[in-house]
């Protein structure tokens, strides 16, 4: 058995290839007649350097293809040379400048009346009520009373809110020339109709209505304004 293994090893020895010595198992005559040739490919000249100039990462910025073009300067910040127009500044800051005003926005508040942006005028001791972008004469004279700094309005004044549909979610109430507290009876009547109330003097109430009616649909916000002469 040992003899057979030695003969098998002698037959397979020429076929062995050791790393780094692949020709060691072949005759020396074969090695001398066929010497190994190492071919090294010469690297071609890179075309990258001919098309793009090598520059540092922090070097000057790359110019465009049009070498005659001049880069535009960024707009200057801060105040203008002649001063900024306050009207332009506030117009730029107003996010609602492009939104159309409500159909019945209050343009001017007089001592005894109102002027709307649709041209309607109201004068006298009565106020106005605006519901669904429609303005009506509010017969408040004699139905609005002040007792101990508390404003109480008769239920007959809210007849339009009883029948209108859909009912507004918020009512801006102008209490005249000064800010007055609203009686619990008036608040409860409006709350039973599902209407929230926000009261203030008439000048501020007109401004608040214009702003809220611009942001929201006219069916959501309503206004009831007493004249400024009411105190």
From TrEMBL:
Residues 63-83 have a biased composition (Basic and acidic residues). Residues 62-85 are annotated as: Disordered. GO terms for cellular component: mitochondrial inner membrane. It comes from the Eukaryota. Gene3D superfamilies: MTH938-like. GO terms for biological process: mitochondrial respiratory chain complex I assembly. InterPro entries: MTH938-like_sf (IPR036748), NDUFAF3/AAMDC (IPR007523). This is NADH dehydrogenase [ubiquinone] 1 alpha subcomplex assembly factor 3. The lineage of its organism: Eukaryota, Fungi, Dikarya, Ascomycota, Pezizomycotina.
């Amino acid at each position: 058995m040992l003899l057979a293994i030695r003969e098998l090893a002698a037959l397979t020895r020429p076929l062995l290839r050791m790393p780094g010595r692949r020709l060691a198992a072949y005759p020396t005559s074969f090695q001398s007649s066929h010497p190994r040739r190492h071919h090294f490919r010469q690297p071609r000249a890179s075309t990258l350097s001919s098309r793009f100039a090598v520059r540092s990462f922090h070097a000057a910025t790359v110019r465009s293809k049009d070498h005659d073009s001049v880069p535009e300067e960024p707009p200057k910040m801060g105040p203008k040379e002649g001063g900024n127009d306050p009207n332009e500044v506030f117009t730029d800051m107003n996010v609602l400048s492009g939104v159309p005003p409500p159909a019945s926005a209050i343009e001017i508040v007089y001592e005894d009346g109102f002027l709307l942006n649709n041209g309607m005028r109201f004068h006298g001791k009565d106020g106005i009520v605006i519901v669904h972008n429609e303005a009506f004469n509010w017969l408040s004279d004699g139905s609005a009373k002040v007792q101990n700094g508390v404003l109480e309005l008769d239920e007959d004044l809210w007849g339009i809110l009883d029948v209108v549909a859909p009912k507004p979610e918020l009512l801006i109430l102008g209490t005249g020339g000064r800010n007055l507290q609203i009686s619990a009876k008036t608040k409860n009547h409006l709350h039973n109709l599902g209407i929230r109330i926000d009261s203030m003097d008439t000048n501020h109430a007109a401004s608040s209505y214009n702003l809220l009616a611009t942001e929201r649909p006219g069916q959501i916000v309503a206004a009831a304004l007493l004249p400024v002469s009411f105190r």
